[in-house]
Prior knowledge:
Layout: E1 14-15, H1 17-22, E2 28-31, H2 41-47, E3 54-55, H3 58-61, H4 78-87, E4 96-99, H5 107-116, E5 121-124, H6 160-165, E6 172-176, H7 180-184, E7 202-203, H8 219-229, E8 236-240, H9 247-257, E9 263-264, H10 268-272
Amino acid sequence: MERSEPAPSPFPVVVTADWLRAHRDEVVLADVRWYLDGRSGRRAHAEGHLPGAVFVDVDADLAAPASPTGGRHPLPDPVDFAAALSRLGIGDDTTVVAYDDAGGSTAARLVWALRVLGSRAALLDGGIQAWRGPLEPGEVAPTPRTRTPVPWPADRVADTAAVRAQLGDPRHLLLDARIHGRFSGASPAPVDPRPGHIPGARSAAWQGNLDSEGRFAAPEALRARFRALGADTAESVTVYCGSGVTACHDLLALEHAGFGGARLYPGSWSAWGADDSLPAETGD
């Protein structure tokens, strides 16, 4: 899956706060804060966001309703996703820069979704903490724009059956973006249906894509990370997490490193782990 050199992209995976300041009038800025512990991202947005940023709701805008087979955050129906983007002022030709306050772990879902659909989107490197300037309180009312529904590319998304069909095949790499304790089963989260991980998966916690300052690691560092996990020799790479959100951080890191075409398993552990007929492993 490795390219000899990273292929030119129509838009970078990450942009700096200085880049955003210079290009602010050319992009829609999206606040994608969301919290696994139940805190309200919308409330955090109302208390203070980057000037002009629209709030994107992970649960309502970036996911279909949860289900046992689809997991906690299934990909939204293309028509529903286009309607949400239109309401948020994200049209067919809109460039988006998304941020959160957690290393890009939730904003990555929006950026990945837009990029696989052919739109220009990037993470704000360092998130809200990287912004030097006052925050703006209150709600932002965007002007709706036309957004055409586009199906999710079949080669960039895997369902449970596809993941199961490749179990035990060394040609196909499966990465788990959750923290190692959730992967191993030593420290499961309350939302995990059971401890452990999909058999044969490699632990690739999304936090490992960041440097010591919480910024995206350099492409060469990410390239070394994913080579060590086998991405350079695998015929395919599929990434999952708890519910298909932080897995997108790994997918963007893979792209930033020059590994193209990796797939998201949206159901992730919330779908796989909930089905007792499917196998699971604990430990490393």
